[in-house]
Amino acid sequence: MMLSDVMEDYLKAIYQLQGEHEERIKTSAIADALEVTSPTVTSMLEKLEDRGLVDREKYRGVTLTDEGETVALEVVRHHRLLEAYLTEHLDYDWSEVHAEADRLEHHISEDFEARVADALDEPEVDPHGSPIPSADLEPPDRSAGKSVTEFAEGDVVVVEEVADHDPEVLSYLATHGVEPGVELEILEVAPFGMVTARSSETVDDVSLPEGVAHHVRVTPLPQAES
Amino acid sequence: MMLSDVMEDYLKAIYQLQGEHEERIKTSAIADALEVTSPTVTSMLEKLEDRGLVDREKYRGVTLTDEGETVALEVVRHHRLLEAYLTEHLDYDWSEVHAEADRLEHHISEDFEARVADALDEPEVDPHGSPIPSADLEPPDRSAGKSVTEFAEGDVVVVEEVADHDPEVLSYLATHGVEPGVELEILEVAPFGMVTARSSETVDDVSLPEGVAHHVRVTPLPQAES
DNA sequence: GTTTAGGGTTAGATGGGTCTAAATCGGTGT
DNA sequence: ACACCGATTTAGACCCATCTAACCCTAAAC
């Protein structure tokens, strides 16, 4: 099946929205994610439905079919492998890789994908801690980690994934010690969602507005310490 | 100026045709190179003319303007840097790099270009021996080497460039010792253009049909030997 | 100089991806 | 139950890159 770059982008966006929220993805959510208008999304969804890549219920949103999910996983694999490769071998900072990977993800061959995976020794996560789908494109488990907003004062957690894409936000997080692998002690969770934490990496505390904190996924420290 | 990938392809094709033959490039030559029909080429040439990238004389072909040439050089630089990178760092064979570079050349950022050039230490030629335009995009000298078909029995030459793109042809040439840097002793130039030569690299002789030989560019050995 | 073959251009259609404006659906609140 | 508001779809348009069919120009042959 011959898919355009744009179609792949829609499938990837739907996949990622299905990961964040659930089930049916609405037209407007896709429109926001891809920065197009909703009529544009509607007409694209019709095409994807014709090709059997999404299940659609008019006025109620879409879900990916198995076939659509496989395509999305392929694109996500390309994207995350590229991000990993760019940081490992071309000296990119994690804050910069997203945009470059977005440009390239649709234009690499299967051969290129395999060589990159090989050069990286089949990595399991990208520089943001996001899991890289395996070569067989089996749907991975996406339940790893919870948003840091779900924890409370005093909890100590390990950062698993920083799923933001904005270079400025990522640079800020890095300079304040919020990166995959670091320990975070939760100092405060404000009623409006802002999380303040202390990183094991830096001296100063960090405050993360809700929008940012939502993308920081963490797991509780195996054994707690006061 | 925002150019589409396709426009870049046209400019690159015109640039390369201007290198091979001369001056005005005809519609049909571009159509052959890009595998589209001639009306398609005509309409694209009109667009490129509107943007000041080509000079066009109806029914008589086009030439690149300075601006058009700069765009073409940028694309060619991307292409050849990618070819070099793929062979150096991702273990590609020289016969395979062209297709991959063609896919990627329009989709890398200036930053990526710079990082690749840096990783390769600003290379001057790609794996086929073709010169890589410098970062300032000044038009390079394209007179290096002459086609091997212009030599005669007994001449000894050094291969500078193998400008073919067909993987099968390139594999064949490599296994018969025809690659940039090797010495070739011309054994015969048949009236229909076929060149037979002996490579300094291999024992067996190679025969190159005219179409292939035309792409093998060589320079005479500094000091001749019988 | 006229003819003619071959290539170039014009005309008109198609499909992809996008938009704006207008119509319509569906859930919420009364 | 019903009206309303916000979200969705329909309708109609546009631009890009491409095609086929038909027409026309150029240059070479006579």
Notes on the structure:
The structure is a homodimer of 226-residue chains. The first copy, chain A, has 8 helices and 8 strands. Chain A is α+β, with helices and mostly antiparallel strands. Chain A has 2 domains: 141 residues, Orthogonal Bundle (Arc Repressor Mutant, subunit A); 75 residues, SH3 type barrels (Roll), CATH 2.30.30. In chain A, helix 2 crosses helix 3, helix 4 crosses helix 5 and helix 4 crosses helix 6. At the A-B interface, helix 5 and helix 6 of A face helix 5 and helix 6 of B. Chain A binds a DNA duplex (30 and 30 nucleotides) through helix 3.
Main traits of this protein?
2 domains; SH3 type barrels; 226 residues; DNA-binding; six-stranded antiparallel sheet; two-stranded antiparallel ribbon; homodimer; Fe-transptr_FeoA-like (chains A, B); Transcriptional_repressor_C (chains A, B); 8 helices; globular; alpha+beta; Arc Repressor Mutant, subunit A; protein dimerization activity (chains A, B); 41% helix
Q: What are the low-pLDDT stretches of chain A, counting only 5+ consecutive residues below 50?
A: none
Helix proportion range of chain A = 40-55%
Order of helices and strands of chain A: HHHEEHHHEEHEEEHE
CATH architecture of the largest domain in chain A: Orthogonal Bundle
Instruction: Give a count of the beta strands of chain A, DSSP E runs of length 2 or more.
Output: 8
Count of helices of chain A? Answer: 8
Helix/sheet category of chain A: alpha+beta
Q: How far is it from the N-terminal to the C-terminal residue of chain A, by CA? A: 56 Å
Sheet with most strands of chain A: 6 strands, antiparallel
Please state the oligomeric state of the protein chains shown: homodimer
Residues in β-strands, percent of chain A: 15-25%
Counting structural domains of chain A, the number is 2
Largest interface: A-B, 17 and 17 residues
Shape of chain A: globular
Q: From the alpha carbons, calculate the radius of gyration of chain A and give it in angstroms.
A: 19 Å
The whole-number mean of residue pLDDT values of chain A reads 92
